Amino acid sequence: MAASAARGAGLAMECAPSQDAFLVPMSTAAQTGNGALAFTPEVERATRGIYEQVRHVIPEVEWPVHAPLIAAINELKRERNAVILAHNYQTPEIFYGVADYRGDSLGLAQEGARTDADVIVMCGVRFMAETTKVLSPDKTVLLPDFEAGCSLAASITAADVRRLKAQHPGVPVVCYVNAYADVRAEADICCTSANAVKVVESLGADKVIFIPDGYLGRYVAGQTDVEIILWEGTCEVHERFTPQDIREFRQSRPGVHVIAHPECSPAVLREVDFVGSTSGMISHIEAEKPDEVVLITECSMSDNVAVKFPDVEFVRPCNLCPHMKRITLPNILRSLQTLTPAIEVAPEVVDGARRSLERMLAVGRASATA
């Protein structure tokens, strides 16, 4: 390939500059005359181990674009005493190239809180950065693109929750963590997709309000005798999958193992072999070791999990999250350089959101000791 030839000849390949010039010169990732970062032999050596890990999910021709940014970010985060958290839906060059911790949103926020870093960069969406700030109020929490939102989180406001509570006096509110901090502050307890059933049943109530994901709420309702009052929010990635998609996968790939996230519709979930959270999907693949699998979720997760399981063939349904894809290597670098955009959460919201999270974590501790 052309990229291989250029590399072999020792030529420097340029990474296209962003709109703003990079502010901090990097010793490893040298700059060219026009301010772009160059793919130098030093950068190639510094990033060689990373590329060996991801070479079957990132084409070789792309690496000279990613590598100078990866080298610059990894150098600058050491200078800033920063850690980078990457959600499972981030692209592989971020997930494996610069992240210190990888996983789901709550787990990442907890990891960030345990570090002695001064700066945390959340490579995810805004509600995840808010969760990180709630658990690390004294640290600088950066979200490389403040417009990285979430259709599900945007479906409900704190005022909506207050109205629901007024309509159903005394009924506890369970809030999926995929919500903004002020919404979670109004809830009695939070849950994840992995522990939602356990959290609902821990309340000992005949009825609960479940927000904001209507599909996840229906999935929970099918696993418990507790009456679930739903809020009809949806994830724009998962709601696009249809039962026909699953049937077509099975028809074109006989024997394929189909795994879906519970944010998908009940009609989709009835068609699949396993339903689980992002971490649950990974654990299931590790336990079952299917020859061929399709993950019914955001498509970058298939690339990231494929690195972990190179012997499994991944069929990639490509429903991209436009919000997750707002996070890029150039804006991660710029965020570390400028320490912006920084996430702030009002103290009274921090208190309420932390309380609902701590109640959820207490349920987990109680289950572990039971």
What is this structure, in a nutshell?
The protein is α/β, with parallel strands linked by helices. The chain is built from 16 helices and 14 strands.
Low confidence ranges: 1-26
Helix fraction, binned, reads 40-55%
Q: Please compute the radius of gyration using only Cα atoms.
A: 22 Å
**How large is the share of residues in beta strands?**
5-15%
Largest sheet: 4 strands, parallel
The geometry reads as globular
Number of strands: 14
Content-based structural category: alpha/beta
Strand arrangement, major sheet: 4-3-5-6
Distance between the termini: 59 Å
Continuous helix count: 16
Task: Give the overall average pLDDT.
Answer: 91
* Helix and strand run: HEEHHEHEHEHEHEHEHEHEHEHEHEHEHH
Structure description:
The chain has 370 residues and is an alpha/beta fold. Helix content is 43%, strand content 14%. A four-stranded parallel β-sheet has the order 4-3-5-6, sandwiched between helices. Strand 11, helix 12 and strand 12 (274-275) form a beta-alpha-beta unit. The longest helix has 23 residues, at 347-369.
Helix/strand layout:
Layout: H1 2-8, E1 13-15, E2 37-39, H2 41-54, H3 63-79, E3 82-87, H4 92-95, E4 101-103, H5 105-114, E5 119-123, H6 126-135, E6 140-142, H7 158-167, E7 173-176, H8 181-186, E8 189-191, H9 196-202, E9 207-211, H10 214-221, E10 227-230, H11 243-252, E11 257-260, H12 266-269, E12 274-275, H13 278-288, E13 292-296, H14 300-308, E14 313-315, H15 329-338, H16 347-369
Parallel strand pairs: 3-4, 3-5, 5-6, 7-8, 7-9, 9-10, 11-12, 11-13, 13-14
Antiparallel strand pairs: 1-2
